[in-house]
Amino acid sequence: MTDTIFTKIINREIPADIVYEDELCLAFKDVNPQAPVHLLIIPKQPIATINDIEAPDRELVGHLFLTAGKIAKDMGFDEEGYRVVMNCNEAAGQTVFHIHLHLLAGKPLGWPPYTENLKV
């Protein structure tokens, strides 16, 4: 897998507004936010897509979700509510091929998500 923009952020080769980091993952503000709070939570280990997650990665992927919950609680929107989304491949909106969670909060998010982009 080639280096992505996320690898460069992890390696501090390009700047990002980092809000959380531990030994397994990093969370930072999305440069094109779709909600008042829009964070990306990325593993430090590169995995291209959901299709590339293997059994040994289950703890890492679970850690991403635990981190989302921790950040929501720390930032005070855990009780109000938030959305966590992971896209898989280009047709689903994945633009960086390094798995990541989108954590969105700060406004009513409605259902279904992204209805303006659906082609029925």
UniProtKB/TrEMBL annotation:
Pfam families: HIT. SUPFAM superfamilies: HIT-like. GO terms for molecular function: catalytic activity. InterPro entries: Histidine_triad_CS (IPR019808), Histidine_triad_HIT (IPR001310), HIT-like (IPR011146), HIT-like_sf (IPR036265). It comes from the Bacteria. PANTHER family: HISTIDINE TRIAD HIT PROTEIN (PTHR23089). Coiled coil: none annotated. PROSITE patterns: HIT_1, HIT_2. A motif (Histidine triad motif) lies at residues 98-102. Residues 5-114 form the HIT domain. Transmembrane segments: none annotated. It comes from Alkalimarinus sediminis. The active site is at H100 (tele-amp-histidine intermediate). This is Histidine triad nucleotide-binding protein.
